[in-house]
Amino acid sequence: MTAQRERPDVPRPSGAGPLLLGVRHHGPGSARAVRAALAAARPRVVLIEGPPEADPLIPLAADEDMRPPVALLAHAVDEPGRSAFWPLAEFSPEWVAIRWALEHGVPARFIDLPATHTLAWGRENTAAAEPEAPTTAADDPAPRTQGETVPATPGEPEQNGEGSGEPADGNPADDGPGAPADPVRIDPLAVLAEAAGYDDPERWWEDVVEHRGTGGDAFAPFAVLEEAMGALREGDAADGHDRDSVREAYMRLQMRAAQKEFGDDAVAVVCGAWHVPALRRKRTVAADRALLKGLPKVKADMTWVPWTHRRLARASGYGAGIDSPGWYGHLFGVPDRPVERWLTKVAGLLRAEDRIVSSAHVIEAVRLAETLAAMRGRPLPGLTETTDAVRAVMCEGSDVPLSLVHDRLVVGDVLGEVPEAAPAVPLQRDLARLQRRLRLKPEALERELELDLRKENDAGRSRLLHRLRLLGVAWGEPAVSRSSTGTFRETWRLRWEPELAVRVAEAGVWGTTVLAAATAKAEADAVAAPSLADITALAERCLLAELTAALPMVMRVLADRAALDADVAHLAQALPALVRSLRYGDVRATDTRALTEVAAGLAERIFVGLPPACAALDADAAQEMRGHVDAVHGAVGLLGDAVRAGHGDLRVRWHSVLRVLSGRDTVPGIVRGRAVRILLDDGELAQDEAARLMGLVLSPGTAPADAAAWIEGFVGGGSGGGMLLVHDERLLGLVDTWLTGVPGDAFTDVLPLLRRTFSAYEPGVRRTLGELVRRGPGRGSTAAGGGSGALGLTADLDSDRADAVLPVVRLLLGLDDRAPIDDNDLAGVAG
Q: Which Pfam families does the entry link to (predicted)?
């Protein structure tokens, strides 16, 4: 398991032909074996499975700024969203082969099917069935195609017209829809592991390859693996699997060319173990060229992009993925004592999370891991043994801290880096320049970023993140601020994913800089926006991104759409986002006068059209209209005095509209109740008047369903209606009296409305209301406003209990116990 140096003593026989090194992609044992075999054979050229368009990019692997994990990215020039990745980690055999060749001055070349065919192949096969299972590391060249419709949820490979799925070996989709999946082709390592008596192919591979050296013969592991793969592929037809046969035909042609140039014994080939038997098979040049004839092509660009350990994981949906990239990176990188160093790293993580872990825990965990390996007949402790030891010793049997270890260390969030010399679209270069200037480094680990927009650097960061979101590059997502709700603060949740490099390439069609691209994209989105609400939301995003050049176009489209749209619901949906945008003028120094005029015009049209629009609505439409009323009320409150002279006091006019709604019988009860509640909260309606209106609605002459809807609008939802009933006993008494008088046949109809109304209350509020109703009517105080009305539901005042607190009150106020005191004047004595 240690990264020991192999001492090859067994020379390779002369005349053996090309050295075929069949590997498991992203396997540290394979990587060490490849390094030892290359050192023993000293080939004159190294051929590697990968797209040949990347040959000019190979020298960049020696750049001091290149830090794996990285990936080769190929995308169609005319359709950047159609792309494919070939990830490489530090412990990938292909990366080790590239580095060995560069260090020894030996040419390195990629020999897999060109990306120009791979990308076009996906376009031609858009009707193919989705893979039944992801392919494995032993038979997959590692390209994960990312198309426009690749789902956000990991583990869901997609094949459609926008992306080509996974161009992987052994992909059952290539056999045609409905073809049965061949388990040997899907996961040959699983078949070998099962034959060896293992139920876990990962564990079998660790025991056979990762934990063992070469025993002095650097070529022995590859010969054994080639023999095993040959046995698995004995039943293959002469031309093999469709995609396999084409790729392997191209590889054979490239091998022949290299043999002709450098000699038969001077060529080393590093490829997936699944391909080795086919590459060794004797085929004519004509037959191989016939398989390649007529392949579809697209123009493709290629570059290096950063990758992450998390995207190397099988759980991400990557066909050649591994379960533990962080663990494999540790095995490959440490010089010695890998178990001790790993458990020390685990202890450091747990201590950073305030877990009590000492050096004694590490010592005991190492002993337990070694004991478990011996009991299980394993040559050395593997990930299974170390995980069991960590759970038992450091986590006290709990899987909760163990999940943190798995997420942070076993998988990990290592993000690679590529040098500035790597090819990139102009937009990517401008983004990198802005990231350096704003000191905003991409990181694979999700983190929160608090921005103070009063600071120039933070304001620049905010502009960049908003512009990228408009371009579809979701590097950051807005989050709720924990420290402040002011408009001068923003909170972002940042996480860089490798796929964002594709999004940047796609966005490059809009411009060569982030500012120019975001401006052009905003103008195009404004013209294509399907609804008025979408345009107002776009205007808000333009203000947040400070796209001053795009705002005139957006405002023209907004004014034209608003003038033609007569639907009050559409206007009500559009107004809140527009009014929110006005708040950004103070912090961002943005001229919002045009927005103010449009917002005021929208508000006036809503005032005129809302009462007629609320007539004759069914239950669902009434519920939706209640939401629009709330949204308009909030928008009018924010709009305030921002409008220019000539529009009058919008708040006064809005209150007039609400009075009309509250008194019109044709308006649904839920809207009328909500209008009354808003007027009451704004101080435009006295409590006595609100109680009178409620009494009218809850009278026997009103249909129970309409009365229940009115109650829902008045005290339902998250509007604080529960506390209103707690503190205003008259309203609670009216509701209680009405509810007990509802006929039995009508009660079943109103019950869903009532449950929806009162279930939204906090548990404490519901409990208090229940206690008040249980006590029944009392002769105590009525509403806080005083006056006559229905009796409250609290118990009668207990004078003896009230007098018992007077000594304490005197003590608090510093009064003489013998001095007379008027109970009603206690509040004024201290003054």
A: DUF5682 (PF18934)
